[in-house]
Amino acid sequence: MKSAKANALLLTHIHQLATPHGDGPLRGPALGDLGIIEDAAVLCVGGKIVSVGTTDAAVRDPWVQRHRKNLREIECRAQVVLPGFVDSHTHPVFTAPRLLDFEKRCAGASYEEIAAAGGGIQSSLAGVRAASRAELAALILKAFEQMAAQGTTTIEAKSGYGQSLESEVKSLEAIRDAAHRFAGTVAPTLLGAHIVPPELCRERAKYLRQICEEMIPLADERGLAWFVDVFCDRGAFDQEEAEQILTAAWQRNFGLRLHVCQLAPAPLHGLLKFNPLSLDHLDYAPDEAIAELAQSSTIATLLPASNYFLGREEFPPARKLIEAGVAVALATDYNPGTAPTPSMPFVLSLACTHMGMSPAEAIAAATLNAACALRLADHKGSLAPGKDADLAVFDAADYREIPYWFAVNRCPMVVMNGEVHSTIG
Fold it and tell me: How many CB atoms are closer than 10 A to CB 226?
């Protein structure tokens, strides 16, 4: 990915600029209310957006007229500009694809059958445990760059394939190392509570103590994570165990996130009392849980790429959630077992074709609401003066083309914190 720094950047003659409004989260009809400007311009200075409007207004601005010779000016004719995507749920710390799992799934094996045979999450443990921190960081950075090449400028990145104190810390350190070399923004998350590692399957309480008494305090003391996540579902951690972990994380002032209702329905009241930033998956969320979620500040992050890759007929209940008033976000769930895709445009396409979301709703869910899920909406997720200069440029005449075209990358350029990156060549 080619990059170029520009202290002052002016994008002009944008065929169509589309952005959600405000700091969110957006709910109900507001989720589908994008602001559209034609023949638009965006002025960015020092990594921040200074103005958004028409090209005519931008070139008439006295400051632009005085400094135009020193601006980097890029024409975006026949292109659409969006806020950079915010991918608020990814698992980038792994060393190899799970091809045997994939082959078994193609032959009809279920998620649970693959896990019982030693596949699934536990099959990634050996690679992460054996890899060096530098090796992991290089792989993570490659994943970040693949995401950026499809319009993503902010990435939540989880540990979770180490499942030991040493390997989870190493994973978080590798995320930090990769983040330092990446022009976009990375939000690190400790997911020690992914599964109980095989060597402690008969000593669950011991592993819980390790998470609560060692992993979480160490991640806090070394500043390695912003959030703590728990996989609370069938075959992972139950709600009582999740509440122990959330309590330990809350006491350390971590933001809280959970994988829930991906594999089976479950009540959410005990988890919502912790005010988690995000509940993710929610494929089987009960109606009463959806009603309670709608009254909370928690974001529902939907991950349809997992359903697609697992060959499921059912997808997350986006329409039910939106119509109930839940704040909905979208993310890739990038991981080696159930969602090996770095493409947010593909996720938008799935949201529109399999979940009944409109293109406008999908874009807002993948930008502003996703930023809310990371506590970053004050400076990410929409194009407005004062926010970070994170933009994605697409070869398209209309924003609806972004979820319309799939299995093709139409993003030739991103701007991350004011830095221009060509995704071609």
Answer: 19
